């Protein structure tokens, strides 16, 4: 009986494993349409960062220490603002100075609430069970747009006793759900003086911008032009000048097939490989093997004759052995995607570390038609 060639058997196995993937490849490379609102935003309708410095009270001895001078000063200013003027030094173990941050979405009105994040600035050990006193939150123009206040939620705990510590999740960063009350509205202008509305792509790309402009033109919602890889200008007709909400709603519902640069991201620390389905490789043959070297050390006890007067000693004996694994050869034709290659190598039992080395060598050989990023 004639025995099959090893390489032919390997290629047959790969063809059997990858047949479904090759059939679905054409559909994957075309990309699926996405709503315009999922890949772009309207210029002018953006969030604003708010920031302030406040005090957290009610801590059970886990606040800032006396060595943190600004904590005592902040507490003194807070008390003096209430009409009291303490003369003795204040203790701050139940208080912590914190950074208070929030994100104010567009179109939020006074009286609505937003989430607040609180972070310790001093040397506090924990913010558990703390309460943030009212803190003004300002934007880049130094105006107050919200006020934060309320009990903190850390989502963790920390216990110390006799030098031992048990801790789960950070306890120096906390959140206050709906802890900020909006006091001032941020003016939003989406239409310029010439009647143009601008749409910004989240991931700038010339092909995606061209497709989005074409989709807007076909919808008869207005004439559109892609100014660059990330900006699309839409002329608003008189029909929608007084009804921008309906226009933006219709624009956001348009479907556009986004495009992206072929990219492979590799994280060496964990052996993680992330790749796009449209990453292709040129015709290439891969042969990968390994050499395993083992060094084993044995310890022997040398016991002399009792009448010889010698000493008992421990001797060391090392044995070195080498084992070379058989190389695995894989051949890929033109137009093969990198996803197909990775699945084939995984079917052959290639480890993540070996896969990263193979990807780097394919890129060095000029056969990888994509950007290789190692983080």
SSE blueprint and pairings:
Layout: H1 6-30, E1 34-35, H2 36-39, E2 40-42, E3 48-57, H3 69-81, E4 96-104, E5 113-120, E6 131-138, E7 144-151, E8 157-161, E9 164-168, E10 173-182, E11 196-201, H4 206-218, E12 224-226, E13 231-235, H5 244-252, E14 255-256, E15 263-267, E16 272-275, E17 280-281, E18 284-288, E19 291-302, E20 313-324, E21 328-332, H6 338-347, H7 352-364, E22 368-369, E23 371-374
Parallel strand pairs: 15-23
Antiparallel strand pairs: 1-14, 2-11, 3-4, 3-6, 4-5, 5-10, 6-7, 7-10, 8-9, 11-13, 12-13, 15-16, 17-22, 18-21, 19-20
Helix pairs in contact: 1-6
| Overall structural domain count | 3
Distance between the termini: 52 Å
Spatial order of the strands forming the largest sheet: 3-4-5-10-7-6
Look at the helices and sheets and give the structural class. alpha+beta
For the CA atoms, what is the radius of gyration? 33 Å
Keywords:
4-stranded antiparallel β-sheet; 6-stranded antiparallel barrel; flat; 7 helices; 36% strand; 375 residues; Phenylalanyl-tRNA Synthetase, Chain B, domain 1; disordered N terminus; 23% helix; alpha+beta; 3 domains; single chain
Task: Please characterize this protein's 3D structure.
This protein has 375 residues and is of the alpha+beta class. The chain has three domains: 6-30 and 263-302 and 319-374, no CATH class; 48-182, no CATH class; 189-256, Phenylalanyl-tRNA Synthetase, Chain B, domain 1 (2-Layer Sandwich). Helices cover 23% and strands 36% of the residues. The chain contains seven helices and 23 strands. The protein has helices spanning 6-30, 36-39, 69-81, 206-218, 244-252, 338-347, 352-364; strands at residues 34-35, 40-42, 48-57, 96-104, 113-120, 131-138, 144-151, 157-161, 164-168, 173-182, 196-201, 224-226, 231-235, 255-256, 263-267, 272-275, 280-281, 284-288, 291-302, 313-324, 328-332, 368-369, 371-374. A six-stranded antiparallel beta barrel has the order 3-4-5-10-7-6. The protein has a four-stranded antiparallel β-sheet with strand order 2-11-13-12. A three-stranded mixed β-sheet has the order 16-15-23, with helices on one face. A hairpin with a 4-residue loop joins strand 15 and strand 16. The two termini are 52 Å apart. Residues 1-30 and 291-295 have low confidence and may be disordered.
């Amino acid at each position: 009986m004639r025995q099959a060639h090893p390489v032919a058997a390997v290629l047959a196995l790969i063809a059997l494993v990858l047949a479904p993937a090759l059939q679905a490849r054409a559909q994957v490379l075309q990309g699926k349409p996405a709503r315009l609102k999922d890949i772009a935003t309207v210029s002018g309708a953006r969030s604003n960062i708010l920031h302030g410095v406040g005090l957290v009270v009610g801590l059970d001895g886990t606040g800032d220490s006396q060595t943190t001078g600004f904590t005592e000063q902040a507490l003194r200013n807070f008390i003096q603002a209430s009409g009291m003027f303490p003369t003795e030094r204040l203790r701050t173990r139940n208080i912590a100075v914190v950074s208070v941050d929030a994100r104010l979405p567009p179109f939020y009105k006074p009286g609505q609430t937003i989430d607040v994040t609180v972070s310790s600035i001093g040397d506090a050990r924990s913010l558990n069970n703390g309460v943030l006193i009212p803190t003004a939150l300002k934007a880049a123009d130094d105006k107050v747009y919200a006020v934060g206040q309320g009990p903190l939620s850390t989502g963790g705990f920390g216990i110390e006793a006799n030098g031992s510590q048990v801790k789960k999740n950070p306890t120096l960063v906390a959140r206050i759900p709906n802890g900020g009350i909006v006091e001032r509205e941020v003016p939003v202008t989406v239409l310029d003086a010439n009647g143009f509305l601008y749409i910004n792509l989240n991931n700038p790309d010339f092909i995606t911008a061209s497709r989005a402009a074409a989709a807007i033109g076909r919808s008869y919602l207005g004439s559109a032009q892609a100014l660059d890889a990330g900006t699309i200008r839409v002329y608003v007709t008189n029909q929608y000048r007084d009804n921008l909400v309906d226009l933006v709603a219709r624009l956001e519902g348009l479907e556009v097939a986004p495009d992206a640069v072929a990219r492979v991201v590799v994280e060496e620390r964990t052996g993680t490989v992330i790749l796009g389905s449209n990453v292709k490789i040129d015709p290439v043959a891969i042969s990968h093997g390994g050499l395993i070297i083992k060094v084993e050390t044995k310890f022997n006890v040398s016991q002399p004759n009792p009448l010889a007067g010698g000493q008992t000693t421990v001797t060391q004996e090392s044995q070195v052995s080498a084992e070379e694994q058989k190389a695995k050869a894989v051949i890929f034709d033109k137009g093969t995607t990198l996803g197909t290659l990775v699945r084939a190598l995984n079917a052959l039992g290639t480890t993540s570390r070996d896969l990263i080395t193979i990807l780097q060598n394919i890129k060095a050989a000029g056969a990888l038609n994509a950007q290789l990023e190692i983080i």
